[in-house]
Every structure is written in C-alpha cells, then in structure tokens.
Design a protein that fits this description.
single chain, alpha+beta, five-stranded antiparallel β-sheet
Length: 168
Amino acid sequence: MKHTISVLVENESGVLTRITGLFARRGFNIESLSVGPTEQEHISRITMVVPGDHHTIEQLTKQLYKLINVRKVEDITNLPNVSRELMLLKVQITERTRAEILDIAKVFDAKVIDFCEEFLTLELSSEPEKILIVEHLLQKFGIMEIAKTGKIALVCNTNSSYSVKYMT
C-alpha cells in the first residue's frame, strides 16, 4: 500500500539529505517527494509517498522523529485530505488530432501554455489519479515530454462540513 507522509521540519541545510538518507539506509523507495515552505517562518513541509505496510510506516515515523530538525510526522493516508500534483505535458498534434486533444484538456481543466504546429504543452494541477488518467488518454497522440511535481497534501478540517463537502 502507498502511504502519504507529511513531515514538518526546521528549514535548515541538510535536513532533506538526512531524511532521504534514512530511507535509503533502510532500503525504502520514495515514490514522490515535494518540499516547500509553510505558513510558519523557518518551517518546511515535506510530503512523501512511500510504499509499505502499516508496521513499516510506523517504524519509519519513529525513525524520522529521532532526526534533529523534525518537528512533526504524520501518515495522512487515511485522514481526510486534499492533494494535488502539477504536470506539464508536451504532446504531438496534427490538424486531425488538435481538436480531440483540446477537448481532453478542457474536460480535465488543463491549460494550454504553449502551442505550435507540431506540439502543444498542457499544464494540469489536479488529484494524482486524474493526472494519470490524462497522461493515459494522451499517450496515443505521442507524448514528447512530461514533468511532474511530487504530491502535496493538507489534512482537512474534519469539524467543518464545508471541508468534507469540497474534499477530493
């Protein structure tokens, strides 16, 4: 099973290296990794997607807490959360395929950010599952390049019906 782990760390040099080193030493793969500043000065959020069972993730969490500069570790996989990835995708187009590709982009709210005779580049910010669907749908046209961010996620306020209503 894949788990989404959210880690709050002090924003100091070497923190990411120590965290990824911990995973490497234990032979665990990080499938997705995203790091960025939070609303708190000098604190960054690391969001990771890692495979493993509950026991393995529990052990990794304990090991993460032993690292200096780690403030909070949370497995948010089963908590109500919103998550997004960003993808830039360059796809080949022809006169015959242009309309169909643009229709797919429209259905998934992808933005055309570059357009020329031979290809167009789409930008899509969405749930990781939708990103995969768009990628799959556009394969038949000839994908030239893809760049993706890692998954980012925030836990929803479970006390609010508004959060639950708009959660994806």
